[in-house]
Amino acid sequence: MSTVRVDFLGRSKELLQDQALQSALRRGMSRFRSLRREVVGEVPEWEALRTRAREIKIHTLKHLPYYLRLLEERVQAAGGVVHWAQDGSEAREIILDIARRGGVQAAIKSKSMTTEEIELNAFLEAEGIRVTESDLGEFILQLSGDHPSHFVVPVVHKSKEEIGALFREKLGAPELREPEQLTRFARQVLRERFLAAEMGISGANFAVAQTGTVVIVENEGNARLVTTLPRIHVAVMGIEKVVPTLEDLAVMFRILPRSATGQRITSYISLITGPKRLGERDGPEEFHLVLLDNGRTRILADPEIWEALCCIRCGACLNICPVFERTGGHAYGWVYSGPIGAVITPLYRGLEAAGELPFASSLCGACAEVCPVKIDLVRLLLVMRRRAVDAGQGVGSLERLGFALWGVVSRSPFGYRVLGRLGRFALRSMARPERSPRLPFPFSQWLESRDLPPLPKRAFRERWRRLGQGK
Amino acid sequence: MRVSLFVTCLVDQIFPQVGEATVELLRRVGVEVDFPEEQTCCGQPAFNDGFWPQAREVARQFLRAFSDSEVIVSPSGSCVAMVREYYPLLFREDPQLHDRAQEIGRRTYELSEFLVRVLGVEDVGASFRRKVTYHASCHGLRGLGLREEPLQLLRNVRGLELIDLPGWDECCGFGGLFSVKMPHLSSAMLEEKIRNIVSTGAEIVVATDISCLMHIAGGLSRKRIPVRTMHLAEILASTAG
């Protein structure tokens, strides 16, 4: 895992200048928002569903060891193998070991943020195993050596022209302009890779403890192939993704596609319980489930923040976030972006590596309003800001000094009055005709695109006595 | 009924006319108003920026200043949300102050919330003959759930033509220190807000929080766009327009 500090400020400045990216994001995000609004509007009991989904997640997290053991037992009973990985390195070694034992030379993957989290592809490639991403977006990213910029539409930042050029350069494709042509071409390439792969690697949206079933939600059908065609299937899943029963899963099915892509249901839903059974013609011979901790139990033990583990990675908070809409995922420097990324990246990677991420929000609260499991993202951002300040991250020394002084002054009515008078006097005397006064840093940043309001001579409290004669 | 005005530091120091309009409006609907002079700031700037100990000191002063108040009314959804939603979090480790904060929070109201939900008044007898568009301030809208209240009040203002604002519930990009720490993103959000405001053809943009309006007005002024900003209290206090 790279430990480079996330430079949200710098990256977001660059990305804001990228006109193609800006219009792609605006188009994509506003489309998701309006689709979501439409399909959520069809469900009169939406709020009750959100509450139910949250209850399921909270209950499961509170009894996580129990449900994980049950899941393990049921997966084993269905003929699968369960592996426990403490961190990314253990998970990678486990997967490599499975590959080696199976004599695997080529693997095919479906979209999985968890495998991005553990940087699996680069590791397997270095070990001589050819890995091909089969989700169209991920395939494009892999060809260009790029990373996903959104949970659900990882390649939202690339135009079809760029993709056409990429296919010509890397795959020797002819001149293709339309998305349909590009998709057809990628499909042909991918079919070969599917047939050549001895191992399929997938993520998991959920796993049902009661039945030992791994669940994958998708639209392209590639995950269906990844999990059925190759001889070995390895599913990699964060431990927080388990749900107790099929009934609980049904609740998740109602909230996830609606929140993620604004669909009532996705084109494909795969429920996978163990490998191919005796007498069955299709399916893998081996099924492995890798359960990844990688910091999750540490977050679970954190009473202020553990609800972040309720996240089902739908991306609704990204789609609605006015900051994300203007930066895309790359500004957040790691696999998880948007409001939830601003909260969990510092948890997984440390406050120091996350830099000013917890401050990458106007705290408008739109994210919390759409979150299908009602994660209180505003509260979590506030808590992470407090921790960042305590750890000396994301705030400057001027800010620190300013608040120290402000705190001392503003807790006393006298101090507050004096500060107010001095401040207004100073700003009034700096006033210039028809223009805002010059201000020192950091307040000068306000004046980049905004004027200051004219300042009154007397504060309200000085005027109050004249008003005080009323009823 | 008697209420204590929690004027907020921003209104007190920079927009005193909004405080005056609030007092005038409350008196017109038959409410007695007092002003606890020991009040300073609610502590939100420090709290939102991660400086909780400093915020706590200032919040403690709020609790002292309003300890005798039966009902507290403020022309700011943001500051009310701070008191009602976040004081309990801020004082989570001090059971005594936590309970006091929770108890004071329950009797602290944003102005439109107080008028519509507590007093049951939707027509305050205002008249204002202008084309107006309404921007929903985030903390009032999502923090306090005030979706309809300000609109109900505006619809009953005589002569006022209310024009829907595209993206009315999207943030203007202020976010307190966010506007200073991430000015490029804040400005980009403001840009879109202003584009939407201009598209309505309204003469005036109204909101329930002066902080958003200060931000929007700052952008309008810089762009020399002749749209005025007014706080909801100022429009509701108006009888001559």
Structure, explained:
The complex is a heterodimer of chains A (471) and B (241). By secondary structure, chain A is of the alpha/beta class. Among the domains of chain A are: 252 residues, NagB/RpiA/CoA transferase-like (Rossmann fold, 3-Layer(aba) Sandwich); 70 residues, no CATH class. Chain A contains 22 helices and ten strands. In chain A, helix 9 crosses helix 10 and helix 16 runs parallel beside helix 19. Chain A starts with 7 loop residues before the first helix and ends with a helix. By secondary structure, chain B is α/β, with parallel strands linked by helices. Chain B has two domains: 116 residues, no CATH class; 116 residues, Rossmann fold. In chain B, the strands form two sheets. Chain B has a four-stranded parallel β-sheet with strand order 2-1-3-4, with helices on both faces. In chain B, strands 6-5-7-8 form a four-stranded parallel β-sheet, sandwiched between helices. In chain B, helix 7 packs across helix 9. The radius of gyration of chain B is 17 Å and the shape is globular. The chains are: A alpha/beta (471), B alpha/beta (241).
